[in-house]
Every structure is written in C-alpha cells, then in structure tokens.
Amino acid sequence: MNDATMADGREIRASICMATYKGTSFVGEQIASILSELGPDDEVVVVDDASPDDTADVIESIKDPRVRLVRASSNKGYVRTFEEAVGLSTGKFVFLSDQDDIWIPGRLAKMLRALDTHKVVASNFDVLGGGPRPWIPRLRSTDSGRHLANLFAVLIGYRAYYGCAMGFRRDALGLFTPIPSYVRESHDLWLAICGNVAGSIAHLDDSTVYRRLHGENQTPAGWRSLSKIVKSRFMLARLILEAFRRTRGRF
Description:
Structural class: alpha/beta
Shape: globular
Order of helices and strands: EHEHEHEEHEHEHHEH
Mean pLDDT: 91
Distance between the termini: 25 Å
Number of helices: 8
Helix content: 25-40%
Radius of gyration: 17 Å
Number of domains: 2
Strand content: 15-25%
Largest sheet: 8 strands, mixed
Oligomer: single chain
Number of strands: 8
C-alpha cells in the first residue's frame, strides 16, 4: 500500500523510514524517542538489511502498531535499504532516520511546519553526550533559497546534509526515487540535491536529532583518500545533472 491511508481509511500523516543493520545496541532507544514524537496516524517503517544479530528481533519486540518491520532476505547496503523503506511508506510526509540516534523533542512539529511550504526539509544535529561536530558549518535558514550556491557547496564538500535530520513531502517522491543505481552512499546529499534543484528546500537553524558517533557509523568520520574524494565529486556532479533531468516537466 502506498496511498497515504491506513487500513481503516485514515490518512497517514508521517512515515519514519529506517534502515537497520547490526543495530541491537541502540535501535530500541532510538525507536522509543521517535514514537514519543508521533501521533496515532503516523508510522515507522523499518527494513532490516539481513542483520546477522538479533536487531530485527529487538524491533519486533516493540509492541506498537505504528511500527512495521520488514526483514530483508539478503544484505543490499544502507542506500538500497533506505530506498526500500521509503517505497513501503504510506505517509504524506516522509522522514529518514538512522538506527542509533535520539530524536530531540519537538523535532517532528518543526519539520512538518517547514514542509507546509517546501518539498524538502533539512535540519542540524548535535552530538549525543556533547563533543565536537564535524568541521563543516551548520545549515542556516538564511541559505534555504540560495539553491545554486547550495549545489556548488555540496559539490565541493562545504555543505553537509544528513539524512537523519531530513524529510520530504510525498509529492517529491518521484524526484527522489528511484535512487540512481550508481549511488552507494550519500543518499542524503541526493535528497538535498533534489530539493535544491526543485527550488524547494528549507534549512532549519535548530538541531532536531542527537547523533550518536561510534565506530559502526556508516558515514565516514575521518579524512578520505584523494581518489575517493574525486570519485565522490564525480558522482555528485552526475547527480546534479540527473536531478535537473528529472525536474524537467515535473516541477
């Protein structure tokens, strides 16, 4: 079902899409923080990427009808797993969530307000327990409308968007998906590119999530090799061109 309605005919407002893999330690705490933000007409769609541990069992033990778990039969990587979760979602508004963070109270309301007027919303994060953030500057609301500047900043690595702090309206689904087949990472930058190319992305000054930094994070924490940086920039340039292609005649 992908029509933004529940089995009893009620419209689903927000779909929280999560990809999990070996997340036993933290996923229960994360889902609890999400559920505290949700209303009765919201849902959490979790696709477990064939975890070898009991991550899926932990999720299944959460007895809340708003949580829907899908167990993948084989490991596809987090980009394809997020894409599957988004494809299974039914809400008018779609939010991405990592398995090991904590939502800050008030997050959903702030992001929903932004999505009243924009197709994509991107906010900031704080580090759980304190500590230094990555060197890349925080997003600023005053940059929301500087779409070409934002695209250039993404391309050179100066503007960071984090999926765990992002969401979009369902009317942007056809722009975001299918995620191009060559994308193996940075689905969040792809979403940001889509929002900026469509001319409809809101930056929130506020942090909406406490990000847990640890050795198992999928996002690289250190410096990359030059070859990886070049490959990444080439991929981002392709994505910008692809987003312009998709928006032609659509938005």
